[in-house]
TrEMBL record:
UniProt name for this protein: cysteine desulfurase
Record carries keyword Heme: no
SUPFAM superfamilies listed in its UniProt record: PLP-dependent transferases (SSF53383)
Residue span, Aminotransferase class V domain: 19-388
Family: Belongs to the class-V pyridoxal-phosphate-dependent aminotransferase family. Csd subfamily.
Alphabetical UniProt keywords: Pyridoxal phosphate, Transferase
Molecular functions per Gene Ontology: cysteine desulfurase activity; pyridoxal phosphate binding
Keyword Ribonucleoprotein: no
GO biological process terms held by the UniProt record: cysteine metabolic process
Superkingdom field: Bacteria
Enzyme Commission no: 2.8.1.7
Amino acid sequence: MKRNDFPILTETMNDEPFIYFDSAATSLTPEPVVNAIRDYYRNVNTNVHRGVYTLAAQATEHYEAVRQQTADFIHADKANEIIFTSGTTAGLNQVARGWGDLNVHAGDEIVVTLMEHHSNLVPWQQLAQRQHAVLKVIGITADGQLDWSAFQAALSHQTKVVAVTAVSNVLGTRNPITKIAAAAHAVNAAVVVDAAQAVAHFPIDVQAWNADFIAFSAHKMFGPTGVGVLYGKTERLQEMAPTQFGGEMIEDVTQQTATFKAAPLGFEAGTPNIAGVYGLGAAIDYLAQIGYEAIQTQEHKLDQALKAALDQPDVTVYGSNNPFAHTGVFSFNLTGIHPHDVATALDQQGVAVRAGHHCAEPLTEALGVHATVRASVGFYNTIDECARFGHAIQATRRFFA
Ligand code: PMP
């Protein structure tokens, strides 16, 4: 399925056909996206929102068209609710600083989950420390789901923010965002969703989720690195202050003071990643062409095949027993073999996986380990690759036995 668009997939690695099972870290970039970035540098290469000459106007027009395209992509009401960032991390930090500092005060509570990536945990820790607020971390059940009763019990009128990942980058667990947002809104808390691991697998629907802020990265949805999206509801963006100051975000500047533009430009100080935004637009087009339905059909098959491949003695898979609860992400360990040794042995057999705590150290600790091996797939992977991965795991077990 469209594998030809990803030249890396036809490479060999260590004399073996290359199997890319690290899409949760970054997805591969198809030719149309690479071409869009090249086209910008070859044929446009001007700054946005500044020059009046034709080529600069063309760049601005395209940049703003991608903003509208992004709004449509996630069903946002208005293009002005879309802020271009450098990625999920930047978006989440912007909310924690720009909105959090103004709206979270001493004694207020911030609720996150044990599933959070560090980029949706540490900014809230820092906010809690700055404001003398309380950070509550909601645990998970034995099968890797959010502990719903603990979550409900944690909510109160002190809760100002609920920050949650749509999909765990370690377990693949998909969180019920609509339900979480409804419960959080019942106590007037703002809902911040880390959609980094969702966007390659299923649609982000701002209307259905009803979240206040949503952050994601282009490089996890077949787009380039260094560009991402922060969605904010208009009324929430009005409550947020800029965290970066400089060119193009100001309205008027005197020697001593300045006033700032409203969203989105007030939150995009300096020259943005214009080529990245061209690439993001091409990635959205690409996703539309493939279609989330086709992606999900293929990924269900891959999830099942990965579960079968890992169904071996001495293999512990973390999270649910249901393969479809993994959203393309399987974290596992081989008894008695260090995860980094497993990853190295797999690399020797052409398989790229990640080993470590996956920027979710508290979760890894809660699983009772220091690290796991993580295999994560995209729609471009095949059932045959899953089977070959299973054989590579067998060979790894034999090698270390
Ligand atoms: N959240 C999750 C769940 C992630 O998987 C990642 C990427 N590993 C991030 C946030 C951070 O994304 P980025 O590095 O693109 O800012």
